[in-house]
Amino acid sequence: MSDFVFPVRVYYEDTDAGGVVYYANYLKFMERARTEWLRELGFEQDVLREDEGILFAVRSVRVDYLRPAMFNDQLAVSAEVVGQRGVCLTFRQEVRRGTETLCRGEVTIVSIDACTMKPRRIPRAVMERLSVSD
Protein backbone atom coordinates (compact mmCIF):
# COMPACT_ATOMS: atom_id res chain seq x y z
CA MET A 1 0.00 0.00 0.00
CA SER A 2 1.35 3.39 -0.89
CA ASP A 3 1.85 6.25 1.54
CA PHE A 4 -1.44 7.35 3.16
CA VAL A 5 -1.66 10.99 4.28
CA PHE A 6 -4.09 12.40 6.85
CA PRO A 7 -4.44 16.17 7.44
CA VAL A 8 -4.23 17.49 11.01
CA ARG A 9 -4.60 21.05 12.28
CA VAL A 10 -2.82 21.89 15.52
CA TYR A 11 -5.28 23.07 18.14
CA TYR A 12 -4.48 25.05 21.26
CA GLU A 13 -5.07 21.91 23.34
CA ASP A 14 -2.22 20.18 21.44
CA THR A 15 0.35 22.72 22.59
CA ASP A 16 2.29 23.66 25.69
CA ALA A 17 2.43 27.13 27.23
CA GLY A 18 4.77 28.30 24.44
CA GLY A 19 2.40 27.30 21.64
CA VAL A 20 4.61 24.33 20.66
CA VAL A 21 3.05 20.90 20.10
CA TYR A 22 3.63 18.74 23.17
CA TYR A 23 5.83 15.79 22.21
CA ALA A 24 3.30 13.05 23.13
CA ASN A 25 0.69 14.57 20.82
CA TYR A 26 2.69 13.55 17.77
CA LEU A 27 1.88 9.96 18.77
CA LYS A 28 -1.82 10.89 18.84
CA PHE A 29 -1.53 12.38 15.34
CA MET A 30 0.14 9.17 14.13
CA GLU A 31 -2.58 7.06 15.77
CA ARG A 32 -5.27 9.05 13.96
CA ALA A 33 -3.51 8.55 10.65
CA ARG A 34 -3.30 4.76 11.17
CA THR A 35 -6.99 4.65 12.13
CA GLU A 36 -7.99 6.65 9.05
CA TRP A 37 -5.73 4.47 6.87
CA LEU A 38 -7.55 1.37 8.13
CA ARG A 39 -10.90 3.10 7.58
CA GLU A 40 -9.91 3.97 4.00
CA LEU A 41 -9.17 0.29 3.44
CA GLY A 42 -12.77 -0.40 4.49
CA PHE A 43 -12.24 -1.54 8.08
CA GLU A 44 -13.65 0.03 11.23
CA GLN A 45 -11.90 -1.02 14.43
CA ASP A 46 -15.15 -1.48 16.37
CA VAL A 47 -16.45 -3.77 13.61
CA LEU A 48 -13.19 -5.76 13.59
CA ARG A 49 -13.60 -6.26 17.33
CA GLU A 50 -17.22 -7.32 17.02
CA ASP A 51 -16.97 -9.46 13.85
CA GLU A 52 -13.40 -10.78 14.03
CA GLY A 53 -12.76 -10.59 17.77
CA ILE A 54 -9.50 -8.67 17.37
CA LEU A 55 -8.01 -5.41 18.56
CA PHE A 56 -4.86 -3.61 17.48
CA ALA A 57 -2.39 -2.51 20.13
CA VAL A 58 0.89 -0.64 19.86
CA ARG A 59 3.85 -2.93 20.53
CA SER A 60 6.72 -0.52 19.98
CA VAL A 61 7.44 3.05 18.93
CA ARG A 62 10.62 4.82 17.84
CA VAL A 63 10.28 8.55 17.21
CA ASP A 64 12.66 11.32 16.11
CA TYR A 65 11.55 14.89 16.80
CA LEU A 66 13.20 17.17 14.25
CA ARG A 67 11.40 20.54 14.30
CA PRO A 68 8.51 21.92 16.35
CA ALA A 69 4.94 22.21 15.13
CA MET A 70 3.10 25.26 16.40
CA PHE A 71 -0.45 26.28 17.24
CA ASN A 72 -2.67 26.49 14.15
CA ASP A 73 -0.18 24.72 11.83
CA GLN A 74 -1.70 22.54 9.15
CA LEU A 75 0.12 19.22 9.15
CA ALA A 76 0.15 16.10 6.99
CA VAL A 77 0.61 12.81 8.83
CA SER A 78 1.62 9.81 6.74
CA ALA A 79 1.26 6.09 7.40
CA GLU A 80 2.99 3.48 5.28
CA VAL A 81 3.23 -0.25 6.02
CA VAL A 82 6.88 -1.26 5.79
CA GLY A 83 6.76 -4.66 7.45
CA GLN A 84 4.44 -7.54 8.27
CA ARG A 85 4.93 -10.64 10.42
CA GLY A 86 1.90 -12.83 11.22
CA VAL A 87 0.39 -10.77 14.03
CA CYS A 88 2.34 -7.50 13.51
CA LEU A 89 2.35 -4.59 11.10
CA THR A 90 5.14 -2.02 11.14
CA PHE A 91 4.43 1.50 9.93
CA ARG A 92 6.78 4.27 8.91
CA GLN A 93 5.16 7.58 9.76
CA GLU A 94 6.00 11.23 9.29
CA VAL A 95 4.46 14.47 10.42
CA ARG A 96 5.10 17.23 7.87
CA ARG A 97 4.34 20.92 7.53
CA GLY A 98 4.43 21.50 3.80
CA THR A 99 7.64 19.87 2.59
CA GLU A 100 9.35 20.08 5.99
CA THR A 101 9.48 16.89 8.09
CA LEU A 102 8.85 17.75 11.75
CA CYS A 103 8.72 14.27 13.23
CA ARG A 104 9.24 10.75 11.96
CA GLY A 105 8.89 7.37 13.51
CA GLU A 106 8.31 3.69 13.22
CA VAL A 107 5.33 2.11 14.99
CA THR A 108 4.68 -1.62 15.28
CA ILE A 109 1.15 -2.72 16.06
CA VAL A 110 0.06 -6.20 17.05
CA SER A 111 -3.28 -7.89 16.47
CA ILE A 112 -4.64 -9.33 19.72
CA ASP A 113 -7.64 -11.43 20.68
CA ALA A 114 -10.27 -9.11 22.18
CA CYS A 115 -11.09 -11.60 24.98
CA THR A 116 -7.74 -13.15 25.91
CA MET A 117 -5.53 -10.17 25.00
CA LYS A 118 -3.08 -12.63 23.43
CA PRO A 119 -1.54 -12.19 19.96
CA ARG A 120 -3.72 -13.38 17.10
CA ARG A 121 -3.18 -13.37 13.33
CA ILE A 122 -4.34 -10.32 11.43
CA PRO A 123 -7.58 -11.24 9.62
CA ARG A 124 -7.12 -12.50 6.08
CA ALA A 125 -9.50 -9.82 4.72
CA VAL A 126 -7.22 -7.08 6.09
CA MET A 127 -4.11 -8.77 4.70
CA GLU A 128 -5.74 -9.17 1.28
CA ARG A 129 -6.54 -5.45 1.17
CA LEU A 130 -2.87 -4.80 1.91
CA SER A 131 -1.87 -7.12 -0.93
CA VAL A 132 0.41 -8.90 1.52
CA SER A 133 0.40 -12.68 1.62
CA ASP A 134 -0.46 -14.17 5.00
Query: What would the CATH topology be?
Result: Thiol Ester Dehydrase, Chain A
Question: Which series of helices and strands comes N to C?
Answer: EHHEEEEH
Trace the largest sheet across and list its strands: 1-3-4-5-2
Structure annotation, total helices: 3
User: Count the strands?
Assistant: 5
Please report the distance between the alpha carbons of the first and last residues. Answer: 15 Å
Shape field:
elongated
Protein architecture, described:
InterPro entries: 4-hydroxybenzoyl-CoA_TE, HotDog_dom_sf, Thioestr_dom, Tol-Pal_acyl-CoA_thioesterase, YbgC/YbaW. This protein has helices spanning 23-40, 45-52, 124-130; strands spanning 4-9, 54-65, 74-85, 88-97, 100-113. The protein is α+β, with helices and mostly antiparallel strands and 134 residues long. It has one domain (4-130): Roll (Thiol Ester Dehydrase, Chain A), CATH 3.10.129. A five-stranded antiparallel beta sheet has the order 1-3-4-5-2. A hairpin with a 2-residue loop joins strand 3 (74-85) and strand 4 (88-97). The mean pLDDT is 93.
